[in-house]
Amino acid sequence: MPQPPESTVPTTATERAAPTARVPAPGTAPRSAEPPLRQSTEIQGDVLAGFRKDHVHLLLLAFGTPEAARGWLDGLRHRVATTREVADFNRQFSRARRARSGVDPQRQRATWRSVGLTHAGLETLIGGVPYADVPRGTTREAFLQGPARRAALLGDTGESAPEHWLFGADDQSPVHAVLTLAADDPEDLGRALAEERREAEEAGLSLVFEQPAGTLAGSLRGREHFGFKDGVSQPGVRDFDEPDPDDPDQQLGRPGTRIVAAGEFLVGHPKDHRLPDWLPEWMRDGSFQVVRRLAQDVPGWWAQVADAVGELRERDAIPSEAGSEWLAARLMGRWRSGAPLTKYPDADPHPDPETDADNDVTYGDDLLGRAVPLCSHLRKTNPRDGLLARVTDPEPVALKGALDGRRLMRRGVPFGARFDPTGGAENGPDAPRGLVFVAYQGDLVAQFEFVQRSWVEAENFPERDQAVGRDAVIGSGGSAAFPVRGSEEQVSLTLRSFVRTEGTLYAFTPSLTALRLLAAGEITAGEPPEDRELAAPVVLRRGEVISSGRARLRFEDDADLRVRDEHEEVLWEAGEAGGEAGRAEFLEDGRLVLVGADGGALWSTPTEGNPGAVLVVAADGEARIRSADGEVLWRTGTGG
């Protein structure tokens, strides 16, 4: 049967033309009816829409003089893809692919660019620090320090420690910009790369490191090097993806895909449950980017799986017919095709690599991890509705208001040739291969670092009498608890790590307006202290802080509430250190309280009966509660 003709789409990020009016195709909604963020010409295109290209290349660049760097950025910003451009292209590409029965439309192609700037890069462009207030334990601190200084909490130790990295270590050349190019066609990518190399060289930039990457071919298409389909469980985004009318928390047409608040991925937008970020206004519509090069030892990992199968059989812990595919699926959390174990416990139902993966997964009926082990990669990185944090908890942790705020927008892509022992040195066991892990988020600490520190690398997450173990795929190894068939018992399984960190960067992907302001030198370094006023209800969880620049109100790890100054010296405290408080709350009745496990107040300000009151963390160095008519009801008395 002949295929429908292909349409040609302009590659607007390569040759930017003025937007042209489009007549909606039959059966499609006009642009005015689309979710508003889908129309954004401010947000860079890879953050929400995703480039989705087969050929990718990252250039890690160092600036020369600030003036030359700003000139380079002024030229580049016109070539950076926007969300509107990328979302439009992706929609038309998908429509053409469906019309061609799943065959990619060869004439419909584009080349996209995005740029992220490290803290050092922003300092160079601005001529000073991008922000002055750096409270302990915040994204501001993480971005300033960079991942090399935080390697231990990320699990980057041993062979994954910064002294072995290819980029990003403190003793290596600093990276100022991460320029990502992505294309459907390798020749288009080559031409774009030549242009960007020329532009960078003329502006005095130097190349610190470059990373080619791309979709694997054949049976590994859409998969990472261990052979598992990747990118299955991406979140939906409120005001970008269309919600299901019958369940607004789910994305329309994608069962199992939750709609998450845009502020989890974009600065300056509402978050799921956390406090505002209070970053400078010019950072609005930007996103924090994590770039990691993760090397994968494919034959080593599969050899370990085969050895573990033999060990578990000897201990009568698994069915006699279970093999390496069976166990590997349980360590990963899915079959190679992406099919969920909860629906298909016995075998992979989709050997075809082109089969669409199933994201409609629930762990609500497997809270103890009998079907999908709690140490599996998927349950460690996205617990969904099956997170019983402690075995004695009455119900799982809520998705909305808790777990949704930990999601990442992942844009990872494999690098290196597939492993094939018959294919020569390029395909051999010692050839470089792995995953370029790229993720966007609104908060480095609460999202990427939290997942790495508190889930992936936590030996007893979730908390059980027998330690669950670290992530069975990307964790740093150790003992893991594996469920014994037909019983409530667990056996200990020793796992080594076959994923190694070879470099990490934190960058910030500014909006298109911010790129223009940075290029023009119009962003002022630092920021003055500023009052932070919040209406009830407000929740402060462990480590969370409200900072004015002179006063930092924080619920601390020892369960006390304190005000510290800009040097982290204590100015005031509630005096409840070592208590049982699980959080601090500013209530609608006007009280600031420390809340115990039973929901009762363990400590409170004497301000009850004042609806409409506001909590103020002031630029003069104190915290206070002010009534609706402006009267100060309570204060810490620390203003100077």
UniProtKB/TrEMBL annotation:
Residues 8-31 have a biased composition (Low complexity). This is Dyp-type peroxidase. Its cofactor is heme b. One of its GO terms (cellular component) is cytosol. The keyword Oxidoreductase applies. GO terms for molecular function: heme binding; metal ion binding; peroxidase activity. Transmembrane segments: none annotated. Keywords: Iron, Metal-binding, Oxidoreductase, Peroxidase. Residues 1-39, 227-255 are annotated as: Disordered.
